[in-house]
Amino acid sequence: MTHIVTVQDAVTAFTDWIEPTAAELDAIEQEMPVVLADVDLIDAQIITLDRTPTELDTQRIRRARRRLLAARRELANRSAGASVPGGAA
What we know:
Number of helices: 3
Oligomer: single chain
Order of helices and strands: HHH
């Protein structure tokens, strides 16, 4: 007769690795403005799903899109500047 054993011990043995590292948390914190701007854009788009967009809705979406692009640009510029080790030669 073969015994059936659970894999609970094997799965929970590595629980220390499940938590994000400090570097991962820093990366999430740097990307948070982009995430929040993306949520604002999605919220503005969701508002107009069940009706014809008004001029105010169009402006809201346009502003949210500009904020998202600005946040992405800022993140790209920040990460590009941080990854260049020696600067211009």
